[in-house]
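Structure representation.

___
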Amino acid sequence: MSLMGCIGRYGGFVQALMTRNAVLEETGKLRTMMPPPPPPVQMPSAVVPRAPVGYASAYPSLPAPSAAPVPAPRKPRDTWSAVVLSKDPKLSGKEVAEKVRREIAPSLGVRLHEVRGLARGGAIIRTPSSGETKRVVANKKFGEIGLEVRQNSAQRPKLIVQDVATQIAPEEFMAELYVNNLREHIPEAEFRKSVHMETKPWTVTDGATVSVTLECEPKVLD
């Protein structure tokens, strides 16, 4: 082989090495510039719903809470009434009631539930017992100031039961009223006919307690 041939082959060999080195260097740069692959994403395991924990399971050492006790209704308050009329037809019911409150009520010596004017004229006086109503009717001071008073025969006596828990249904209230107060005195059938509840039926949305007004025959209160 001639010298020129050897030099040509050597030059080709050197050129091939230089090209290979250039390719290797470029590949290394690309690998350096490329960001590392993201870490594998771990999928969360399925969430298995748990059954609700009861009070006894959550607090085994504590006693279970008890329901709030329902207060028993108070004993009924009797209401009897007398009607007051004026000899002066010009006086309204409101004026008659004010006259009774101002000039007679302080000296009656009885317990008064109410003194209220009537739309048709005159006034009504309510007391907690038949005896006190009779004392009102017998008072002569009404005549001295131009008033007439008589027992209200057109209206039956009333019972007012205060602080009745609204958790007690009206039917349950009437049953408890009979059992706790009148069972030993009259049959239940007679009680149902003789006692009428004037207060409209209530629910728990009406507040914690209500006052219940009952109208009854006089024999129920004897």
